Amino acid sequence: RISTQWFVRAGILAQPAIEAVREGRIRIVPERFTAIYYNWMENIHDWCISRQLWWGHRIPVWYCGECGETIVSRTDPSACPKCGSSHLTQDPDVLDTWFSSGLWPFSTLGWPEDTEDLRYFYPTSVLETAYDIIFFWVARMIMMGIHFTGQVPFDTVYLHGLVRNEQGDKISKSMEDAWRYDPIFIIKEYGLDPLRYTLLTGST
Q1: 133 pLDDT above the threshold of 80
Q2: In a 3-state reduction of DSSP, which class is residue 11?
Q3: Is a pLDDT exceeding 80 seen at residue 128?
Q4: Per the omega criterion (within 30 degrees of 0), is the bond before 92 cis?
Q5: Among the listed residues 160, 119, 124, the one whose alpha carbon sits nearest the alpha carbon of residue 33
Q6: How far is 125 from 26, CA to CA, in rounded Å?
Q7: Which one of 10, 43, 101, 195 counts the least CB within 10 Å of its CB?
Q8: Quick one: pLDDT at residue 204?
Q9: Taking Cα atoms as reference points, which of 5, 29, 20, 50 lies closest to residue 143?
């Protein structure tokens, strides 16, 4: 049903991220996926970041029960800045998973504090992931990394393929017959060396 949501103006974040790849500060391997990255980023829509789930990072917004003021704050407020009431309720929504994981390269290193780990490990060199989340995860890490730290999060994005079944469908744990693709089952049925050989030849 139609409901009120929180959005981020993604176009503001996208432009510096496009330039980072165009200027060669970030290289996407294989190079053909650069076209997919540009297509998504150049046609980006405002990003709905609120989710109605039981877990996740809470949206940092509070509502005053007395005057109806909406308070956006980096720290938990104790009183309404408009009327002084302490009758505050935090927004029940949480952030989109990709918003939280987009912060991963630097938030795990102590950001926003200037930590030794952050200085040493950020930015990193190579991000390796599957090609199907280039716009879900990779693009968001680049956008948020540049926005919050002023630096690209990595200099190379190495994209690998997906393991698929006989029909060409991506294998996931939610598939009814996912057990058939469990490596332990495959080793018992066909042996370890055939599995190794298949994985090696399929990821050239």
Answers
A1: yes
A2: helix
A3: yes
A4: no
A5: 160
A6: 10
A7: 43
A8: 59
A9: 20
